[in-house]
């Protein structure tokens, strides 16, 4: 049983899958899992577009410091997508494990962890690693700030003693 369809292995070894008829007929945890996965996909795609805009090889943003901040925000969005992906996958795995070891659930209805959960964990791990790399490898460069120029006017030093030299002799 997944968040998009339910599959059953028949006694003949054939697998038969059926898409859920109505979203309203689903339990609340499956509805929440669907919503989190969809939001994770949207956040991941937005993070990808932000990363493209902030990449060093693009000219969308001229300022290097601003590019670094854009890449850090992209990394944070990838990490957010990873967490949003990890929640429903881990929740589903927990449900499968609890029901598998429950003596109340009949043997025919016990589920096992399938490839979809492993793919979900792998996707979350890749999003987390990629987002962390973007956050750590693109620190904004500190701008060198010089103190403001002094506004005190200095005048040239004038000699008090009269000079016997003619200034025109030295030109």
UniProtKB/TrEMBL annotation:
Location of the protein in the cell: Cell junction, Tight junction; Cell membrane
Main location: other
Family in the record: Belongs to the claudin family.
Source organism superkingdom: Eukaryota
Membrane topology summary: Multi-pass membrane protein
A GO molecular function held by the record: structural molecule activity
Gene3D superfamilies: 1.20.140.150
Sequence intervals crossing the membrane: 32-55, 76-98, 118-136
Keyword field: Cell junction, Cell membrane, Membrane, Tight junction, Transmembrane, Transmembrane helix
UniProt-recorded name of the protein: Claudin c
Any one GO CC term of the record: bicellular tight junction
Pfam family, one: PMP22_Claudin
Keyword flag Electron transport: no
Record organism: Ctenopharyngodon idella
